[in-house]
Specification:
There is one protein chain. The protein is an alpha+beta fold. Helix content is 25%, strand content 25%. Helix 1 packs across helix 2. It is globular.
């Protein structure tokens, strides 16, 4: 399954960044990438995604993405190994709610992850120490 998750996510590489979108090759944001991989692996999405603004997480206290991940994905314990295909949930700044998602594509010393990033689209990035320090939780697809 882990290889299938990464393969599905890599099909999205080069998809432009479009807020709230989830259409391979046309546009996606970070949640849209996860939604698209879900559809490829499991069929229809488990719940409708409500509309959200680009700054939706800037002034809230509710862990919307974490709560949704807990409903539909399988949590990975903090001490468990980092494995490809895991969904990474990032907290972009200390004290803020977690608001960015990616998929671990390479584990180990040269770790990388796939994500949709503003102004860049869907890319594969090194999971550098600054990125690693922002990981708030890890999940896997069921």
């Amino acid at each position: 399954m882990d290889d299938a998750v990464v393969a599905a996510a890599r099909e999205w590489l080069g998809t432009p960044y479009v807020h709230q979108a989830s259409v391979k090759g046309c546009g996606a944001d970070c949640l849209g990438l996860i939604r698209g991989v879900w559809r490829q692996l499991h069929g229809s999405e488990p719940e409708a995604t409500p509309a959200y603004t680009a700054d939706w997480a800037e002034c809230g206290q509710t862990e919307v993405l974490h709560d949704a991940a807990m409903r539909h994905l399988v949590p990975v314990a903090p001490h468990d190994d980092w494995r490809i295909g895991q969904v990474l949930l990032f907290r972009m700044r200390q004290g803020a709610i977690a608001k960015h998602l990616g998929i671990l594509s390479v584990a180990g010393a040269e770790a990388r992850f796939l994500h949709a990033y503003t102004y860049h689209g869907v890319i594969e990035s090194p999971l550098t120490r600054p990125w690693q320090s922002r990981v708030a939780a890890r999940f896997r697809f069921p």
